[in-house]
Structures are given as C-alpha cells and as structure tokens.
Design goal:
Ald_DH_N; Aldehyde Dehydrogenase, Chain A, domain 2; alpha/beta; 3 domains; seven-stranded mixed β-sheet; 456 residues; Aldehyde_DH_dom; Aldehyde Dehydrogenase, Chain A, domain 1; six-stranded mixed β-sheet; oxidoreductase; binds nicotinamide-adenine-dinucleotide; 16 helices
Length: 456
C-alpha cells in the first residue's frame, strides 16, 4: 500500500475537514462536533492505527508443528484477495465508506467503493477527493443508485464488503454466489437495551445520558448500533422516564425541532416510513413524550413511547430513527427471553451492576456484541472486532480484524527430505494400518517410544 494510501487519507482529511463538515451538514444536518466524533475522527484514528500496526499485521505467523510432521516448519502468511467491492452507507457516509477501504488497502487489495446515493454531497466529496490523494489504480469511487449497485454486483469481485439493509444483503449474497465470491455483510436489526434497576442517583444520571447518546446521539437514531428499544422493570421505569425527559430538554432545548444538535432524517421516504410507524392508533396512544414532526425540515423530535403493542411495526421492524419504545417487565430477567424470541441483534446494551446477570446475558443470548453500561462506544474501539451474527450480518472488521477480513490466510508448510515413513504408502497391510492408527493417536516422539517399547 498501502502506507502511502493511508497517509493520503490522513492528508485528505487534514486538508478537507471543512468540506467534509459541510457535506455532512448538507446531507444529514450533522453538527461539526458530531461529524468529527463519528466520521472524521474515526477515520483519522483508523488510518493512523493501520499505519502504526501494518508491519505487525503483515508479519507471517509461525506455527510450531506437532512432532508427527517432523522435520517440517509451518507458517501462515496474509495475501491480498485482489479486487474488492465496498458498499458504503448513507448514515455515516464518510466513515462507513472509508473504514473498510483502509482495511482493504492495508491488506494490499485494490478497491471499488460504491458510495451511497442517499448522501449525495458526501458521495460527490469522496468521488472528487479520493482521486486527488490516492492512486486511482488502487482505489476508485463510484457514485450512483440501485441500478449502479445492481450492475456492480454482476461483475466478478474477489470480495464484497456490504453495509446496508438485510433486504439488499440478500441480493448481494445471491449475486456473490454466482462467482463464489466471499462476502462480509454489515447489516442492521433491532438493538435492545436492558436497563436494570439502579439505585445510585449518579449511576442513573450516567445511564440516562448514555442511553440518549445511543438513541439520539448518532445521526438522530439512524444508526445500525443505535438503541432501538429499552427493556426495564415496571417499578424503575418512572424514574428513568422522568430523567430522560429532563435530559432531552438539556440536550436539545425546549424546541428540539429547531435544535442545531439534531440531525435530520435522510430523505422524505425515510421520514414517511417513520411517520407511518407512529400512525398506528395504538402506537400513537403510547407516546409519552415528543411526537412532533417537521416534514419540511425532515426533523422528528426525540419521541418516547411506553409499551406500544409488541406486534406493531415499531416493535417488529428496525426503527432507524429518533423513536424510543420502552417496554416494561415485571422482572429484568425476562429481558433474556424477550430478546431470544426475536432475531439475533447486532448489539445488546445492558446497564446493570449485577455480575451474575451480566454473565447470564453473555451466555444465554446471541448478538454481534454486548456492551455493558454504555452504548455505541464499542464501534470506536479498534482492538475489538465489529460485526453481526445471524440476521444482523456476518464477518467482522476494525483494526487488525479489517486487515484479516480482506486477506487470505495462506498456509505454508515446508517438509524435509529426511525421514519418509513407509506406512503411508501402498501396498497396504495390517501393520501399516496399525501404524497409521498409532501415528494419529501419538505424536512422533511418543510413537517412537512406543515402537521401541519405552511406552505402553
Ligand atoms: P440499503 O441496503 O438500502 O442500501 C445500501 C446500498 O446498496 C446503497 O449503496 C444502494 O445503492 C445499494 N443497493 C440498494 N438496492 C440494491 C440492489 N437491489 N442491488 C444492488 N445494490 C443495491 O441500505 P440503507 O438504507 O442505505 O442503510 C440502512 C440499513 O443499513 C439499515 O438496516 C442499517 O441497520 C444498516 N446499516 C448497518 C451498518 C453496520 O455496520 N452493520 C451500518 C450502517 C447501516
């Protein structure tokens, strides 16, 4: 690369930070602080990390081989897959596009990046800026909609890395099957947040701020790892709800629709989709805070719903917006069964100080990740893998995991001409069968001891 490319991304971000802020504001109404936190900063950190660690990541892994193979040596080396196709997403149109690109070029691949058409200024920014800083033979950006996506999928790639919906994820997988192309699918779903009954006022305050950070903080809830809904004990719900309402006022003022700290919904289609979720009369009746929508500005006020019907769309579809259902339970342990009766989430958040309950959540549920006592921050942690399981996707990336995702781990074994065990070759006889049985059971050294009678 590779080194030059990651340095170039860093340089581009340094030179063009204001342009990125402007594009993100135009596409999503993101405040520059949010844009730096979730996009620019993430990419600068990721590029620096790749540059600092690349030599270590590329180093072959030597393996000590079992004595059965003596004399021989073995190692695993990472080789590039070739030409990879990366689909970016519109909700974090810079970071979710470039983070996989960093991993792909670090691993020595060339990349075609399909930017999302739903964030058109960011897509244009990427298409215009990347060629100024990076080798166009190594990284190309393509702008376009569904038709372009479909055409790209008809080509043969060495890897497809897709971030997006489950619906399109299926189309990606079936297109990839034609060429037996490996895929990584970073999909979505509903991320539950368990809130155990907390007693310390300062813990409750921190929990509420962190829940809000995970619900309305990232792109007005238009985030794959955003808090989708809360599970809480009935007796603790009023305390939590009261503080949530107060904190919404602190964060977004008396009139959140006018707040500069709120992102807008990406387009009219998504706005209408969210509006429709609230139109169900039983759902509308469950709104206990907010509920105002401004169609012109494409802004929806932070909205809390208490116990909407569980079979309503808001509780069966990924919300991907600023609506927060709270479901009350008699006992917090019921949250495990609640989660297990639905598709495997991308992430589970749980606020609790009960270590036994923590272990229970980890061992009795399945999700891409589990984060205790916070939301969202796991995404920014380069040393932990990020990815889904089941319907929330498969494959993983970030830091070294990105490098591995875009590499083929090639096995190298080198044998010597010394020692050639005859029993592995025909003509077969009983002795050879016995010998092979023992060889698989014991390593070479123990086999030798056995044969010379020093071992039983
Ligand atoms: P989407 O699936 O509609 O679109 C993603 C990309 O696919 C776009 O570039 C689009 O042009 C292209 N596309 C759409 N239809 C296509 C087709 N038939 N053939 C080929 N390409 C096609 O997703 P979206 O609405 O942009 O994103 C929202 C979804 O993405 C949510 O479900 C969210 O949870 C998920 N998401 C996941 C992550 C993650 O890291 N796991 C991150 C962000 C978003």
């Amino acid at each position: 690369m590779e080194e030059k490319s990651a340095e170039s991304i860093d340089q581009a971000f340094h030179d063009k930070e204001e342009n990125i802020f402007e594009a993100l504001f135009q596409d999503l109404g993101k405040h520059p602080v949010e844009s730096y936190r979730d996009e620019v900063g993430i990419i600068e950190k990721s590029a620096t990390n790749a540059l600092n660690c690349l030599e270590k990541w590329m180093a072959p892994t030597k393996s000590r081989l079992p004595l059965l193979f003596f004399p021989a040596k073995g190692e695993v080396i990472s080789e590039p897959l070739g030409v990879v196709l990366v689909f970016g997403s519109w909700n974090f149109p810079i970071s979710l596009a470039l983070d996989p690109v960093i991993g792909a070029i670090a691993a020595g691949n060339t990349v075609m990046l399909k930017a999302s058409e739903l964030a058109p200024r960011c897509a244009s920014f990427l298409a215009e800026t990347i060629p100024l800083y990076m080798d166009s033979n190594a990284v190309k950006v393509i702008v376009g909609g569904v038709d372009v996506g479909e055409q790209l999928l008809q080509q043969k790639w060495d890897k497809i890395f897709f971030t997006g919906s489950q619906r399109v994820g299926r189309a990606v997988m079936s297109a990839a099957a034609q060429h037996l192309t490996p895929v990584t699918l970073e999909l979505g779903g509903k991320c539950p947040t368990i809130v155990d009954t907390l007693s310390s006022p300062s813990d409750i305050k921190t929990m509420v701020k962190r829940v809000m950070g995970g619900k309305w903080g990232p792109c007005s809830g238009q985030a794959c790892i955003g808090v989708d809904y809360i599970l809480v004990e009935e007796k603790f719900a009023p305390t939590m709800i009261d503080l949530l309402k107060k904190t919404i006022k602190t964060f977004y003022g008396d009139c959140p629709i006018d707040s500069e700290n709120i992102c807008r919904i990406v387009n009219t289609n998504h706005f209408e989709r969210l509006h429709k979720l609230l139109e169900d009369p039983l759902v509308a009746a469950s709104i206990i805070h907010g509920g105002s929508l401004d169609k012109e500005k494409l802004i929806i006020e932070p909205t809390i719903l208490l116990n909407p019907p569980l079979d309503a769309d808001i509780m069966t579809e990924e919300i991907f917006g600023p609506l927060l259902p709270i479901i009350t339970l008699n006992h917090i342990q019921e949250s495990i069964e609640f989660i297990n009766s639905r598709p495997k989430p991308l992430t589970i958040y749980a606020f609790t100080k009960d270590e036994t309950f923590m272990r229970q959540i980890v061992s009795e549920t399945s999700s891409g990740s589990v984060l205790f006592n916070d939301t969202i921050v796991q995404f920014a942690c380069d040393v932990l893998p990020f990815g889904g399981v089941g319907q929330s996707g498969f494959g993983r990336y970030h830091g070294k995991y990105s490098f591995d995702t875009f590499s083929h781990e090639k096995t190298i074994m080198q044998r010597s001409f010394i020692i050639d065990l005859e029993p592995r070759y025909p003509p077969w006889n009983d002795f050879k069968l016995k010998f092979i049985r023992l060889a698989y059971k014991y390593d070479y050294f123990n086999l030798l001891l056995l044969l010379i009678g020093l071992k039983k």
